[in-house]
Design goal:
7-stranded antiparallel β-sheet; 172 residues; 6 helices; single chain
Length: 172
Amino acid sequence: MPELELRGSVSFSLLIAVLHGLVVVALLQLPAAFLWLLPVAVLSLLLTVAKYGLLLLSRSVRKIRLAHDGWYLGLNNQVQLGPFELDDATRLDSGYLRLSLRRSALERRHLIINREMIGADQFRRLSVFLRWASEKGQQPEAANLRIRLKTFLAQRLPAGPRLRKSSSRAPK
């Protein structure tokens, strides 16, 4: 799979704006003591649209690349993160996909990608690839299932008779 170059998405930015607008409407229904949260919601809107919708910030993901050792993410500030493994939280839909990647149990990245961000043909190719990868057991959880099952069984089942090391001492 070639390197994918992400572009900003106006439709995704509008979706983010609508969701933040609903939060503002909900805040306006609360007592006046909660009005201090309005600037926080507006700042959140601006930062979220800039980072995830229009991909303007330095920490915005601009490139996605699959190499032999995992997935790599290229940021606007020329930093490359990776390698990541495909996580089983990846979701596919006809209009968008959530690419979930993890490097460790604590470090995960979730990218929401729509057709506008990578083009219709590349979106279709990525969707087919991700669907094929999950069906062929390429998800990290499925790939490591046998190893985890062996480890689990080894920890839970009683051990058989153990051989003792022979001592070099002669019996008395």
